[in-house]
Specification:
358 residues; SH3 type barrels; alpha+beta; three-stranded antiparallel β-sheet; 10 strands
Length: 358
Protein backbone atom coordinates (compact mmCIF):
# COMPACT_ATOMS: atom_id res chain seq x y z
CA UNK A 1 0.00 0.00 0.00
CA UNK A 2 2.80 2.40 0.92
CA UNK A 3 4.48 1.63 -2.38
CA UNK A 4 1.33 2.65 -4.23
CA UNK A 5 0.93 5.87 -2.22
CA UNK A 6 4.59 6.71 -2.73
CA UNK A 7 4.34 6.30 -6.48
CA UNK A 8 5.50 9.53 -8.19
CA UNK A 9 3.16 11.16 -10.68
CA UNK A 10 4.28 14.46 -12.30
CA UNK A 11 6.82 15.08 -9.56
CA UNK A 12 4.45 14.35 -6.64
CA UNK A 13 3.54 11.18 -4.82
CA UNK A 14 0.09 9.68 -5.19
CA UNK A 15 -0.52 10.48 -1.53
CA UNK A 16 0.13 14.18 -2.15
CA UNK A 17 -2.25 14.12 -5.11
CA UNK A 18 -4.94 12.53 -2.95
CA UNK A 19 -4.40 15.13 -0.21
CA UNK A 20 -4.59 17.98 -2.74
CA UNK A 21 -7.74 16.52 -4.30
CA UNK A 22 -9.32 16.07 -0.88
CA UNK A 23 -8.56 19.70 0.03
CA UNK A 24 -10.15 20.89 -3.21
CA UNK A 25 -13.23 18.70 -2.77
CA UNK A 26 -13.73 19.67 0.87
CA UNK A 27 -13.40 23.37 0.08
CA UNK A 28 -15.79 23.04 -2.88
CA UNK A 29 -18.28 21.21 -0.66
CA UNK A 30 -18.06 23.98 1.96
CA UNK A 31 -18.57 26.61 -0.75
CA UNK A 32 -21.58 24.67 -2.12
CA UNK A 33 -23.12 24.51 1.35
CA UNK A 34 -22.39 28.20 1.81
CA UNK A 35 -24.15 29.00 -1.45
CA UNK A 36 -27.18 26.76 -0.90
CA UNK A 37 -27.76 27.60 2.78
CA UNK A 38 -26.26 30.95 3.75
CA UNK A 39 -26.83 32.79 0.47
CA UNK A 40 -30.44 31.58 0.20
CA UNK A 41 -31.17 32.87 3.70
CA UNK A 42 -29.47 36.16 2.91
CA UNK A 43 -31.59 36.48 -0.25
CA UNK A 44 -34.82 35.96 1.69
CA UNK A 45 -33.70 38.49 4.29
CA UNK A 46 -32.69 41.04 1.62
CA UNK A 47 -36.07 40.75 -0.11
CA UNK A 48 -37.82 41.78 3.10
CA UNK A 49 -35.81 44.99 3.61
CA UNK A 50 -36.63 48.40 2.15
CA UNK A 51 -33.18 49.13 0.74
CA UNK A 52 -31.83 47.44 -2.41
CA UNK A 53 -28.16 47.65 -1.48
CA UNK A 54 -28.38 44.37 0.43
CA UNK A 55 -29.94 42.69 -2.63
CA UNK A 56 -27.07 44.07 -4.68
CA UNK A 57 -24.47 42.76 -2.20
CA UNK A 58 -26.01 39.28 -2.18
CA UNK A 59 -26.19 39.11 -5.99
CA UNK A 60 -22.60 40.34 -6.23
CA UNK A 61 -21.45 37.70 -3.73
CA UNK A 62 -23.16 35.05 -5.84
CA UNK A 63 -21.87 36.26 -9.21
CA UNK A 64 -18.31 37.20 -8.20
CA UNK A 65 -17.60 35.94 -4.68
CA UNK A 66 -18.60 32.30 -5.17
CA UNK A 67 -16.59 31.82 -8.43
CA UNK A 68 -13.57 33.44 -6.75
CA UNK A 69 -13.88 31.04 -3.81
CA UNK A 70 -13.98 28.04 -6.17
CA UNK A 71 -10.87 29.28 -7.97
CA UNK A 72 -9.15 29.88 -4.62
CA UNK A 73 -9.96 26.34 -3.47
CA UNK A 74 -8.20 24.92 -6.54
CA UNK A 75 -5.29 27.30 -6.02
CA UNK A 76 -4.80 26.33 -2.36
CA UNK A 77 -5.11 22.63 -3.21
CA UNK A 78 -2.51 22.87 -5.97
CA UNK A 79 -0.20 24.81 -3.63
CA UNK A 80 0.27 21.65 -1.55
CA UNK A 81 1.95 20.03 -4.53
CA UNK A 82 5.47 20.57 -5.82
CA UNK A 83 5.73 21.73 -9.43
CA UNK A 84 8.55 23.09 -11.54
CA UNK A 85 9.14 26.80 -11.14
CA UNK A 86 7.66 27.56 -14.57
CA UNK A 87 4.42 25.69 -13.78
CA UNK A 88 4.16 27.27 -10.32
CA UNK A 89 4.63 30.68 -11.90
CA UNK A 90 1.85 29.97 -14.44
CA UNK A 91 -0.53 28.85 -11.64
CA UNK A 92 0.33 31.95 -9.56
CA UNK A 93 -0.16 34.33 -12.50
CA UNK A 94 -3.46 32.67 -13.45
CA UNK A 95 -4.76 32.97 -9.89
CA UNK A 96 -3.69 36.62 -9.60
CA UNK A 97 -5.34 37.39 -12.94
CA UNK A 98 -8.59 35.70 -11.87
CA UNK A 99 -8.50 37.38 -8.47
CA UNK A 100 -7.90 40.81 -10.04
CA UNK A 101 -10.68 40.22 -12.60
CA UNK A 102 -13.33 39.44 -9.99
CA UNK A 103 -12.22 42.27 -7.65
CA UNK A 104 -12.37 44.76 -10.52
CA UNK A 105 -15.77 43.36 -11.47
CA UNK A 106 -16.99 44.05 -7.92
CA UNK A 107 -15.55 47.59 -7.90
CA UNK A 108 -17.02 48.37 -11.33
CA UNK A 109 -20.47 47.03 -10.36
CA UNK A 110 -20.38 48.93 -7.05
CA UNK A 111 -19.51 52.19 -8.82
CA UNK A 112 -22.33 51.67 -11.35
CA UNK A 113 -24.77 50.88 -8.56
CA UNK A 114 -23.72 53.98 -6.59
CA UNK A 115 -24.16 56.27 -9.61
CA UNK A 116 -27.57 54.84 -10.55
CA UNK A 117 -28.84 54.87 -6.97
CA UNK A 118 -27.85 58.54 -6.70
CA UNK A 119 -29.56 59.37 -10.01
CA UNK A 120 -32.79 57.57 -9.09
CA UNK A 121 -33.31 59.99 -6.22
CA UNK A 122 -33.72 62.85 -8.70
CA UNK A 123 -36.48 63.71 -11.14
CA UNK A 124 -36.42 62.38 -14.71
CA UNK A 125 -34.12 59.56 -13.55
CA UNK A 126 -34.57 57.39 -16.67
CA UNK A 127 -33.16 60.07 -18.96
CA UNK A 128 -30.32 60.79 -16.54
CA UNK A 129 -29.42 57.09 -16.39
CA UNK A 130 -28.96 57.12 -20.16
CA UNK A 131 -26.83 60.24 -19.87
CA UNK A 132 -24.67 58.60 -17.19
CA UNK A 133 -23.71 55.76 -19.52
CA UNK A 134 -20.70 57.65 -20.87
CA UNK A 135 -19.46 58.55 -17.39
CA UNK A 136 -19.69 54.92 -16.25
CA UNK A 137 -17.86 53.74 -19.37
CA UNK A 138 -14.99 56.17 -18.74
CA UNK A 139 -14.83 55.22 -15.06
CA UNK A 140 -14.73 51.52 -15.98
CA UNK A 141 -11.81 52.12 -18.34
CA UNK A 142 -9.90 53.91 -15.57
CA UNK A 143 -10.73 51.16 -13.04
CA UNK A 144 -9.55 48.38 -15.35
CA UNK A 145 -6.36 50.23 -16.31
CA UNK A 146 -5.48 50.69 -12.64
CA UNK A 147 -6.32 47.01 -12.05
CA UNK A 148 -3.94 45.91 -14.80
CA UNK A 149 -1.19 48.12 -13.36
CA UNK A 150 -1.85 46.60 -9.93
CA UNK A 151 -1.64 43.09 -11.42
CA UNK A 152 1.63 43.82 -13.22
CA UNK A 153 3.09 45.29 -10.03
CA UNK A 154 2.13 42.19 -8.01
CA UNK A 155 3.75 39.97 -10.61
CA UNK A 156 7.07 41.56 -9.71
CA UNK A 157 7.50 43.87 -12.70
CA UNK A 158 8.63 47.49 -12.38
CA UNK A 159 5.51 49.53 -13.11
CA UNK A 160 7.37 52.85 -12.97
CA UNK A 161 8.54 52.38 -16.55
CA UNK A 162 5.06 51.30 -17.59
CA UNK A 163 3.45 54.36 -15.96
CA UNK A 164 6.05 56.65 -17.53
CA UNK A 165 5.34 55.05 -20.90
CA UNK A 166 1.62 55.54 -20.40
CA UNK A 167 2.27 59.18 -19.49
CA UNK A 168 4.30 59.83 -22.64
CA UNK A 169 1.78 57.92 -24.71
CA UNK A 170 -1.02 59.88 -23.10
CA UNK A 171 0.62 63.17 -24.03
CA UNK A 172 1.06 62.02 -27.62
CA UNK A 173 -2.55 60.87 -27.81
CA UNK A 174 -3.74 64.14 -26.25
CA UNK A 175 -1.87 66.17 -28.87
CA UNK A 176 -3.18 64.00 -31.69
CA UNK A 177 -6.78 63.99 -30.48
CA UNK A 178 -7.35 67.44 -29.02
CA UNK A 179 -10.84 67.71 -30.52
CA UNK A 180 -11.90 64.34 -29.10
CA UNK A 181 -10.56 65.18 -25.64
CA UNK A 182 -12.24 68.59 -25.84
CA UNK A 183 -15.57 66.89 -26.49
CA UNK A 184 -14.85 64.46 -23.65
CA UNK A 185 -14.28 67.28 -21.15
CA UNK A 186 -17.36 69.03 -22.51
CA UNK A 187 -19.29 65.83 -21.79
CA UNK A 188 -18.23 66.07 -18.15
CA UNK A 189 -19.34 69.73 -18.12
CA UNK A 190 -22.74 68.74 -19.53
CA UNK A 191 -23.11 65.85 -17.08
CA UNK A 192 -22.17 67.72 -13.90
CA UNK A 193 -23.37 71.25 -14.74
CA UNK A 194 -26.54 69.98 -16.51
CA UNK A 195 -27.29 72.89 -18.89
CA UNK A 196 -29.66 70.48 -20.61
CA UNK A 197 -30.82 66.88 -20.27
CA UNK A 198 -32.40 64.22 -22.43
CA UNK A 199 -35.94 65.28 -23.31
CA UNK A 200 -35.29 69.05 -23.11
CA UNK A 201 -36.40 71.28 -25.99
CA UNK A 202 -33.48 73.53 -26.94
CA UNK A 203 -32.64 76.14 -29.54
CA UNK A 204 -29.02 76.41 -30.71
CA UNK A 205 -28.29 79.15 -33.24
CA UNK A 206 -30.79 78.49 -36.06
CA UNK A 207 -31.54 74.90 -35.05
CA UNK A 208 -34.06 73.61 -32.53
CA UNK A 209 -35.32 70.26 -31.29
CA UNK A 210 -35.47 67.78 -28.44
CA UNK A 211 -32.30 66.33 -26.86
CA UNK A 212 -32.37 62.63 -27.75
CA UNK A 213 -28.95 61.31 -26.71
CA UNK A 214 -25.89 62.67 -24.90
CA UNK A 215 -22.71 60.76 -25.71
CA UNK A 216 -19.05 61.08 -24.83
CA UNK A 217 -18.28 63.00 -28.04
CA UNK A 218 -21.60 64.09 -29.57
CA UNK A 219 -25.10 65.05 -28.58
CA UNK A 220 -28.02 64.17 -30.86
CA UNK A 221 -31.04 66.42 -31.27
CA UNK A 222 -34.30 65.40 -32.92
CA UNK A 223 -35.39 68.53 -34.80
CA UNK A 224 -38.99 69.59 -35.33
CA UNK A 225 -38.74 68.71 -39.02
CA UNK A 226 -37.90 65.12 -38.07
CA UNK A 227 -34.21 64.66 -38.90
CA UNK A 228 -31.51 63.98 -36.31
CA UNK A 229 -29.02 66.79 -35.72
CA UNK A 230 -25.62 65.61 -34.44
CA UNK A 231 -23.59 68.27 -32.59
CA UNK A 232 -20.22 67.96 -30.90
CA UNK A 233 -20.31 68.53 -27.15
CA UNK A 234 -17.76 71.34 -27.46
CA UNK A 235 -19.98 73.23 -29.91
CA UNK A 236 -22.93 73.00 -27.51
CA UNK A 237 -21.00 74.11 -24.43
CA UNK A 238 -19.52 77.05 -26.38
CA UNK A 239 -22.89 78.14 -27.82
CA UNK A 240 -25.66 80.25 -26.36
CA UNK A 241 -28.33 77.64 -25.88
CA UNK A 242 -31.99 78.33 -25.09
CA UNK A 243 -33.52 75.58 -22.94
CA UNK A 244 -37.31 75.91 -23.19
CA UNK A 245 -37.96 72.83 -21.03
CA UNK A 246 -36.93 74.84 -17.95
CA UNK A 247 -39.11 77.81 -18.80
CA UNK A 248 -41.57 78.30 -15.94
CA UNK A 249 -43.91 80.57 -17.89
CA UNK A 250 -44.00 82.08 -21.37
CA UNK A 251 -44.32 85.85 -21.90
CA UNK A 252 -46.50 86.79 -24.87
CA UNK A 253 -46.65 90.26 -26.44
CA UNK A 254 -49.11 91.04 -29.23
CA UNK A 255 -50.49 94.20 -30.83
CA UNK A 256 -53.87 95.16 -32.28
CA UNK A 257 -54.61 97.94 -34.72
CA UNK A 258 -58.06 99.48 -35.23
CA UNK A 259 -59.18 102.05 -37.76
CA UNK A 260 -59.19 105.80 -37.15
CA UNK A 261 -62.97 105.72 -37.52
CA UNK A 262 -63.21 103.97 -34.13
CA UNK A 263 -65.00 106.12 -31.55
CA UNK A 264 -63.50 107.29 -28.25
CA UNK A 265 -65.95 105.11 -26.34
CA UNK A 266 -64.91 102.04 -28.29
CA UNK A 267 -61.22 102.81 -27.80
CA UNK A 268 -61.74 103.09 -24.04
CA UNK A 269 -63.44 99.69 -23.89
CA UNK A 270 -60.75 97.71 -25.79
CA UNK A 271 -58.17 97.23 -22.94
CA UNK A 272 -60.79 95.99 -20.46
CA UNK A 273 -62.41 93.79 -23.10
CA UNK A 274 -59.13 92.02 -23.99
CA UNK A 275 -58.18 91.74 -20.30
CA UNK A 276 -61.45 89.96 -19.54
CA UNK A 277 -60.90 87.49 -22.39
CA UNK A 278 -57.34 86.63 -21.30
CA UNK A 279 -58.13 86.46 -17.58
CA UNK A 280 -60.97 84.00 -18.18
CA UNK A 281 -58.45 81.33 -19.31
CA UNK A 282 -57.11 79.14 -16.43
CA UNK A 283 -53.52 78.92 -17.70
CA UNK A 284 -53.18 82.58 -18.74
CA UNK A 285 -52.13 85.51 -16.55
CA UNK A 286 -52.91 89.00 -17.83
CA UNK A 287 -50.12 91.52 -17.32
CA UNK A 288 -51.03 94.79 -19.08
CA UNK A 289 -52.87 96.33 -22.01
CA UNK A 290 -52.52 99.91 -23.32
CA UNK A 291 -53.35 102.20 -26.20
CA UNK A 292 -49.73 102.39 -27.37
CA UNK A 293 -49.72 104.92 -30.19
CA UNK A 294 -50.94 106.43 -33.45
CA UNK A 295 -49.83 104.48 -36.51
CA UNK A 296 -49.76 105.48 -40.16
CA UNK A 297 -53.10 103.80 -40.77
CA UNK A 298 -54.20 102.44 -37.36
CA UNK A 299 -54.68 103.17 -33.69
CA UNK A 300 -52.38 100.67 -31.97
CA UNK A 301 -52.82 98.70 -28.73
CA UNK A 302 -50.19 96.54 -27.02
CA UNK A 303 -51.04 93.65 -24.70
CA UNK A 304 -48.85 91.40 -22.56
CA UNK A 305 -49.85 88.15 -20.86
CA UNK A 306 -48.15 85.01 -19.51
CA UNK A 307 -48.84 81.37 -20.28
CA UNK A 308 -48.34 79.49 -17.00
CA UNK A 309 -47.15 76.32 -18.74
CA UNK A 310 -44.00 75.84 -20.83
CA UNK A 311 -45.70 73.49 -23.30
CA UNK A 312 -45.72 75.08 -26.75
CA UNK A 313 -48.96 73.42 -27.84
CA UNK A 314 -50.80 74.78 -24.79
CA UNK A 315 -49.50 78.27 -25.65
CA UNK A 316 -50.69 78.01 -29.26
CA UNK A 317 -54.11 76.62 -28.27
CA UNK A 318 -54.71 79.46 -25.81
CA UNK A 319 -53.43 82.12 -28.18
CA UNK A 320 -55.77 80.88 -30.88
CA UNK A 321 -58.72 80.95 -28.46
CA UNK A 322 -57.86 84.49 -27.34
CA UNK A 323 -57.56 85.79 -30.91
CA UNK A 324 -60.87 84.21 -31.97
CA UNK A 325 -62.73 85.65 -28.99
CA UNK A 326 -61.24 89.12 -29.60
CA UNK A 327 -62.37 88.91 -33.22
CA UNK A 328 -65.88 87.90 -32.14
CA UNK A 329 -66.14 90.72 -29.57
CA UNK A 330 -64.87 93.33 -32.02
CA UNK A 331 -67.36 92.11 -34.62
CA UNK A 332 -70.19 92.33 -32.10
CA UNK A 333 -69.25 95.86 -30.98
CA UNK A 334 -68.60 97.15 -34.50
CA UNK A 335 -64.87 97.73 -33.99
CA UNK A 336 -62.94 97.37 -37.25
CA UNK A 337 -59.40 96.07 -37.53
CA UNK A 338 -57.07 98.33 -39.45
CA UNK A 339 -55.12 97.29 -42.52
CA UNK A 340 -52.69 99.29 -44.68
CA UNK A 341 -54.63 101.94 -46.63
CA UNK A 342 -53.87 105.21 -48.40
CA UNK A 343 -56.26 108.10 -49.18
CA UNK A 344 -55.42 110.11 -52.32
CA UNK A 345 -56.92 113.64 -52.65
CA UNK A 346 -57.35 114.95 -56.25
CA UNK A 347 -57.80 118.73 -56.70
CA UNK A 348 -60.21 119.91 -59.42
CA UNK A 349 -57.95 121.11 -62.26
CA UNK A 350 -60.34 123.90 -63.51
CA UNK A 351 -60.74 125.37 -60.06
CA UNK A 352 -57.02 125.14 -59.49
CA UNK A 353 -56.27 126.94 -62.79
CA UNK A 354 -58.80 129.79 -62.03
CA UNK A 355 -57.24 130.17 -58.63
CA UNK A 356 -53.80 130.60 -60.18
CA UNK A 357 -55.07 133.27 -62.72
CA UNK A 358 -56.68 135.31 -60.00
Amino acid sequence: MNNILNQIIWGNSLYNWIVATAIILILCLIIKLLRSVVLKRLKRWAEQTNTNWDNFAVSLAESAGIPLLYISSFYFGLNTLAFPDKVENIIHVAYLAAFTFFILKVISAAFRKFVYSFIRREENSEAKEKQAGGLIAIANVVIWILGVVFLVDNLGYNVTTLIAGLGVGGIAIALAAQAVLGDLFSYFVIYFDRPFEIGDFVVVDNDNGIIEYIGIKTTRIRTLSGEQLVCSNTDLTNSRLHNFKRMEKRRIVFTLGVTYQTTHQQLSEIPALVKEIISSKPKLQFDRGHFSGYGDFSLNFEFVYYVLDPDYNIYMDNQQTVYLEIFAEFEQKGIEFAYPTQTLLFENQTAALAHRIN
